[in-house]
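Good morning N.,

You mentioned wanting to compare the apo and holo forms, so I went ahead and generated the holo version with zinc ion. This is what I fed in:
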Amino acid sequence: MRIANVGNRAVVLVSDDRGFDVQEVSGGRFGPNLASMYERWEEFTAWAKTLSDTAADLVVDRSRLGSPSPAPRQVFAIGLNYSDHAKESGFAQPDTLPPVFTKFPTCITGPDTQVVLPAGGNVDWEVELVAVIGKEAKNVPAARAWEHVAGLSVGQDISERVSQLRGPAPQFGLGKSFPGFGPIGPWLVTPDEFGNPDDLEIGCSIDGEEVQKGRTSELIFSVPALIEGLSHTVTLLPGDIIFTGTPAGVGLGRSPQRFIQPGETLVSRIEGIGEITQTFTTASN
Ligand code: ZN
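and this is what came out, ligand included:
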């Protein structure tokens, strides 16, 4: 099943542009917004499976899509979780849980946006598989972790490298949390929709030039391993977001380094989910 946030209303999609408004069709039992539904995700998905596709009469305007989890209480982001990316970043491959940081929730947006490049910054791209939690997780073993995932989405961990790397220790949380730096979408795809949710092609391009390409099977810590590792320390809550890490090909790791320029368009995609699009501008525009 695919669930979209359309103008802050939850919509079960039957195609890219047609679906059911959850609150209307459920007679007010669920919705209207997606944030409220994560608290009762199992109940909601059981109900949604009884819907008949042919009755979907809502036309979905893609420009109105918001983040599939618009109000996460916690946003986790994982660094160095693909070995080629750890190498290009100059780090050894982690053997315990990789670096965990946050993107502050105000940077989270829907899938297709215009992002302002901070003055004096070096803005970089990081396409990432995003997992949204659908059931509270505390000390969850990897073998049961998918039961706690509401679904998967495409994310960009947009990163401003000057402020990220300035000072005595990296400022990951700030450098990656400028307004608009956490686009997610275009919708949430439930794990049962994938032949293998642990092996999806992932990539992104700038103005049509492919800059990152990999497979999520190359994650050093898979989605289940991350949930096991994180939930050993932190209680994961319904609606929480995990950015799972980026494959090789970021601008910081290139020679010469390359960063996003005003006017460029970044398209990020994951097999079986879809794509999201960011255009970039300077503050003065
Ligand atoms: Zn990242």
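The two ends are 40 Å apart (CA to CA).

Happy to go through it together on a call whenever suits you.

Best,
F.
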